[in-house]
Design goal:
Helices cover 36% and strands 27% of the residues. It is of the alpha+beta class. It has one domain: Aminopeptidase (3-Layer(aba) Sandwich).
């Protein structure tokens, strides 16, 4: 199943990592098809907590994760191009991903994920700031994201970074928005 997954053709990324991340050995590059196994591993790390309580055999959990990852991946590349599908690396070792859709009038922070050892170190905050800067430089109205309702820590992070709830919810996720300028606040949400 994973062998059939592909990424959009490589393009020059609009997102630039902040100098302090670059100086620390971090980089971002367009993800390619060869990165899909890492993306699948990262997805598994993100979902591991949910699956711990299930009494499924390990092989069933892996099959489920493969299927769910493939669905998510196909959805992202079908609905969120054009944009940046970036692999985040530290000293050329993959540690995460950042997907940002370059929509009109709003950009969408589709996904940001880091492997567990790299969380809580300010890297995610710096990546979100880079996405905000990119949206602002492109004269987007705002940067929109969805956060799982039960992910209180992520929601607090987004609120600290200037995102506000729009009032939209699908029952599992809240929509949040960061306006690129004060004049855009009225039209968002």
């Amino acid at each position: 199943m994973l062998a059939t997954l592909t990424l959009p053709p490589s393009q020059t990324s609009a997102i630039r990592l902040p100098p302090h991340l670059q100086a620390g050995g971090f980089s971002a590059r367009a993800a390619c098809d060869a990165d899909i196994p890492f993306m699948r591993e990262l997805y598994g790390e993100l979902r591991a907590g949910e699956l711990e309580a299930l009494l499924w055999p390990k092989s069933a959990k892996w099959a489920f994760l493969d299927y769910q990852f493939a669905l998510q991946h196909r959805h992202y590349v079908s609905y969120y191009a054009p944009g940046d599908f970036l692999l985040i690396e530290h000293r050329e070792t993959p540690i995460g991903r950042l997907y940002v859709h370059h929509g009109k009038p709003d950009f969408v922070l589709v996904d940001i994920a880091l492997m567990p050892p790299w969380r809580g170190k300010g890297i995610g905050t710096a990546l979100i700031r880079a996405a905000q800067d990119t949206a602002q430089q492109a004269s987007a109205r705002g940067l929109i994201l969805q956060v799982e309702q039960r992910n209180i820590a992520a929601r607090r992070l987004y609120e600290r970074m200037g995102f506000t709830l729009t009032g939209e919810s699908d029952g599992q996720r809240f929509e949040m928005v960061w306006p690129c300028c004060a004049e855009s606040i009225e039209g968002l949400g």
